[in-house]
Amino acid sequence: MKTITAGLAALLLSTAASFAADAWKEAEVNGAKIYTDANGMTLYTYDKDEKGKSNCYDKCATNWPPLKAEAGAKADDEWSVVDRTDGTKMWAYDGKPVYTFIKDKKPGDVTGDGVGEVWHIVKAD
């Protein structure tokens, strides 16, 4: 019975970790290592956010969709989960919530970098 319980616990932990691993990935664009969502779309941070808190809602969130976190998603290294005021959850890198950009049309696009001098690509260290 202990073996079954331990096996089930390991499976559940690996499933939670896979939610995280499936949400983002590392990519190389123009010679720089960056993070993208699972579809290869560039991720950005917003200077007006606070660590662990998103300030991008309504029209902002329409143009800069948050990288949603699935229910039960768990922090993974420098990645964490942020609760939004609308009841949804989103991913954050090093405490900063991350977003895609509506004007990026294909993987590798980085048209959001520097927009309004407040949006920045999430660079992989």
TrEMBL record:
GO terms for biological process: alkane catabolic process. InterPro entries: Lipoprotein_repeat, UCP029720. Keywords: Signal. It comes from the Bacteria. Residues 1-20 form the signal peptide. Pfam families: Lipoprotein_15. This is Lipoprotein with Yx(FWY)xxD motif. It comes from Mesorhizobium ciceri.
